[in-house]
Task: structure prediction
Amino acid sequence: MNTNSLNDINPGEHAIVNTLLSTGSMRRRLLDIGLVENTNVECLGRSPGGDPSAFLIRGAVIAIRSEDCKNVIVTRQ
Amino acid sequence: MGLTNSSIGIKAVDSGLEIKKQLPGDKVIALAGNPNVGKSTVFNGLTGMNQHTGNWPGKTVTNAQGYCSTKNHSYVLVDIPGTYSLMAHSAEEEVARNFICFGEPDVVVVVCDATCLERNLNLVLQTLEISKNVIVCINLMDEAKRKHIKIDLNAISKRLGVPVVGAVARKKNSLSTLMEVVDKVVDGNIKATPLSIQYPKEIEEAIGVLEPVVKNKVGEMLNSRWLSLKLLDQDESLVREINTYLGYDFLNDEELNEAYAHGKSILDSYKIDSDLLKDKIVSSLVRKAEEVCLGAVTFEKEGYNASDRKIDKILTSKVTGYPIMLALLALVFWLTITGANYPSQMLADGLFWVQDRLTEFFQYMNAPNWLHGILVLGVFRVLAWVVSVMLPPMAIFFPLFTLLEDAGYLPRVAYNLDKSFKRCCACGKQALTMCMGFGCNAAGIVGCRIIDSPRERLLAILTNNFVPCNGRFPTLIAILTMFFVGTAGGAYSSIVSALLLTSIIVLGIFVTFAVTKILSKTLLKGVPSSFTLELPPYRKPQIGKVIVRSIFDRTLFVLGRAIVVAAPAGMVIWLMANITVGDTSVLNHCASFLDPLARLMGLDGVILLAFILGFPANEIVVPIIIMAYMSQGSILELDSLVEMKELFVNNGWTWITAICTMLFSLMHWPCSTTLLTIKKETGSWKWTALAAGIPTAVGIMSCIFFATAARIFL
Result:
């Protein structure tokens, strides 16, 4: 079990959210989409340019940019 | 205030909404929900109305209202903007929150998507905190069934403590159960015991101190528990509204301030600062939603959305993502061009036959020549051109595009293009506003509201015009066909037209990127802000509805506007062409005045004048050019592209003129409607002027550059 950011999770892999380092409006937005502690996240893929990546979060597919992903600390499953 | 003292109009605080009741006894239903859950379908299903704002992918951006009635009651339905939360992070959330909180609706119906209920419950739970009479309408039950998701409506209803109704809003009659429940709630036949969210004990302690005082002050007017929480949370936008709503300076109340200070000190003693408090509130909501769904929502098949993932793999992969995007664009154009060909010709034949009859009629009546000129050669002929050139491509393009939108493809375009937008320091959602721009730039500008950062929203607004709207396609298609494909027709030539048109669009997209980048390095400096983009589940588009909706709502709307503008324009042009000053017409005077600049740009004075006169609507540019040339007496009958080309060539058009005209059509000032919309959205003349100036400058420069280069090298 390693501690990583969302950026380290490759398509097809699952992870569990530990903490959010983001602040301000982005923090609120990430919380709103359900990224709270212990949430299971699956990386579904990356966009053709390699960024953003799509994640399955609580039944919804959400695209997040890499600079925001790096602020989501997760444990790879 | 509110329902008590006003029988007809209630003014909801700051939601910019005056509820128009038809009868004093009308009950008010607020329709809330996340974006993309078919809230507008529910609204339209109940009111029988076609909600215009909701029909662009911009969705409901302001409150819309409609009426419906049951045996027991008549209702006013208020469709409030789709949001994920009521914490007022954005303008939409603020409007939604304010209406639920201060609009005093009799019932709040929260529409949810059955295929991702847990996520939707966040909004439900927040609504339960504010309002007593909540009904949860779980829409898209058919999609859930298709994905083998089983939802125990009874269990959910028990856990939430409010009525829960399943629905398939796009099917007729599916909403009758909902209305029965609404009736029961309004009549007090269902006593709801809404679930109350328990927060961590530190927060509960602080609420406990504040709530009795708040309750004392506001009574039953607002939910005191929720209000106490929001006060502790220092929700500034809410605090402002409360003062307006209560009509006195609630927050300067001494007793209240004392209690607030006490509550705050409790939070401080547990080291809960405002960020941590927000986190804990949101986490509690998310956990609660999880709890409510646990066991009540079951996924019968592992990988219930596997087919969506497969489609996503194809539509957004490295290899196929971009090619498919371009291919779809080209396919839409090809279908439009091919399909529009024959109806266009038939309409033109029919309308010009009518023109001949009108002429005969005027002659028979011995009408004066000038009257015949203004009405038939001026007004009618321009109208005929606008209708026959515009209507068929629009009637094909709009439904096709709406199908893509309905199926859920457009957010994938934003996902695919986000990296490029990020390079220009802009937001990926700008791709969505550009897609709306294909339909109508004014709609695209309004749609820019989906972009949260003000700087990025301005970038999107200022560059939206580089996407040619439906008023400009027919011009581009006609010129392409005449000069580059040949007017012979057939499958081959229509494919070539579609590909050429696609390359023009791609050019427009590149210019958008370039201008966006330049703007964000100069006038609108900044770094790309963070954003999240939801990729909603694919849905089978409702083909029949899409066709009806896009034809009635979009095609006829846009065509109507064009006609309103074209009729007087036709008259003006005819007058300009027939009133002479000295020995030439006013039209020729104007055209020759513009001629030097126009020649430099590879155009001629008439073309440039047509663009200027086409300011009210781009649709009339080609008709103006035709009228101007015809008034100079070359050809009098014109009913096919072959003759049109002959007319143009006789007036000195070459392929260079054609390309420059297309370039200028792609890049010049937005039409008057769009500019007015920009003024409204930005609230600033400066940005409006820039929105006109930037594309015009780029267009003039590109034309001059191209024309000069072509003359030198070819």
